Amino acid sequence: MTTTTGLDFSPAPGAAPLSRMVAAQAGAEIRAMLRNGEQLLLTMVIPLLLLTGFSLAPLVDVGDGARVDFVAPGVLALAVMSTAFTGQAIATGFERRYGVLKRLGATPLSRGGLMLAKTLAVLAVELVQVVLIAGVAFALGWRPAGSPLLALPLILLGTAAFSGLGLLMAGTLRAEATLAGANLVYLVLLGCGGIVFPLSAFPDSVEPVLGLLPISALAGGLRSVLSGEAGAPLAAAAILALWAAVSLVLASRTFRWE
Amino acid sequence: MDSPAVEIIDLVKRYGRTTAIDGLTLSARRGAVTAILGPNGAGKTSTIEICEGFRRADGGSVSVLGLDPSRPELRARVGVMPQAGGVPPAMRCGEWLRLMSRFHAAPLDPAALLERLGMAAHARTPYRRLSGGQQQRVSLAGAVIGRPELVFLDEPTAGLDPQARHACWELVGELRAAGVSVVLTTHHMDEAEKLSDHVVIIDHGTVVAEGTPSSLTGAERQLRFRARPGLALDELLTALPAGSAAKESPSGHYIIEGQVGPELLATVTAWCAAEGVTADDLSIERRTLEDVFLELTGRELR
User: Fold this and answer.
1) Could you report the predicted ipTM of this complex, rounded to two decimals?
2) Where would I find the H helices in chain B?
3) Residue A37 in contact with partner chain B when CB distance is under 8 A
4) What residue ranges do the domains of chain A occupy?
5) Which residues cross the membrane (chain A) (predicted)?
6) Pairs of CB atoms within 8 A across A/B
7) pTM summary value
8) Mind listing the domains of chain B with CATH numbers?
9) Which of these, A61, B12, B61, B94, is most buried using a 10 Å CB contact count?
């Protein structure tokens, strides 16, 4: 411990280029997400189990057509929510609690750079989820029609809305409250967000309200573009954009870094 | 480049009704090691966190390398070691240091730095599995990896075993030799005495004394011994040369100050013999910063 290695401590300060900082931080966030068992349960295991279970067994009445055609888009929406909302809220809440956000604030990586890195990491994990879920869904006989490319703007809007909600929670509540709350919201929205149980199964008085939830908008929108229905899912996109705008503005105003 | 590393004038910081920092003024020279010494709750961490840009001052002015602490360009020039935490618990410490290094233009090699701190074997260990002392070393590494001009170390040796403390001291010495300005907080007097060019003693959020360690402790030596409490020191003083001082603090612990030499020693022991008192642990010592603090505040440092 006392041997002097040739370390040159003479000052040579300077920030790395923003792209390198953001890439390094995003890489660290991706590794953290893929290494965390609870996160993998929420983001990968549960969606894949729901996809296979509800596609193979006649658990719910999904109307005409193959069950997997109904379930796969819903599970894709769940995947987006699990990563952008639940996973991000919990991880960020604990980063705040452990002083990680504060410590990063003392590095040349700006807060904007940190948020960009987090967003890139969420999108990267979502890409892994989409590939896995679509692969399993294909194996189960899923044949999406229409223009799958239209799903992309919906997923991006959904990611923005869920990230805003997740960061709103993580930046204001205690880490334990965020952990409990984010898991609870995940469960509730899984049950009544049109993911595997169609909204039409709910009473007529509740159904229109549930349709305004970001998860229902995303699931419904994805279902419509992936089943080849005519026209762009403008209503779903509008609902998601509104959730994104409100939650991101609120999160940026209320977020406490420590 | 002429501005000091840190210049604080009349700093005030309040938390609710509590005034944590109350008109604190201090200056840390470039290229020097400045120690902020004080008991827990004296305002050390608040002061350093305002310098790091984490907290805002309620009054007074602070400049770091001549700039307002909130200026983003300082982030690349200043290294920070927080008192605790800051590292994701599940992240391997080598991975975290590599991440930190990627934020800087000309960083130190993370592996070499870990090696230097005796942590090479733990590069793949998650931060939460490290001992407290090992976590401190990782945190210290994070403060210096970007080759900063100035580092803030908040209680850098808290929880370290003696060997690790010495390794930390050595590193601070190397930083100083390389021209890095260091500002650290501590409540260890020996740390402040050994490490620093300048010591600022604070209590209740204000500076009670400052100077070089030797100017604070003075050249004077003192004679100390233990005996039963309540000796009549007035009598002893009449036997001692003029200008000597004697006190009992705390009870049963006696300190004699003055021209401490063979004569004084002989006088004290002769007086004890005449009183039928056995003087234990008799020793001649220099004053320590602990004595200075006790004198100034009437309280022990810890």
Assistant:
1) 0.89
2) 44-51, 74-77, 93-102, 110-116, 132-144, 162-177, 189-195, 213-217, 233-239, 262-275, 289-297
3) no
4) 18-254
5) 40-60, 72-94, 115-138, 150-172, 184-202, 230-251
6) 129
7) 0.85
8) 6-215 (3.40.50.300), 219-286 (3.30.70)
9) B94
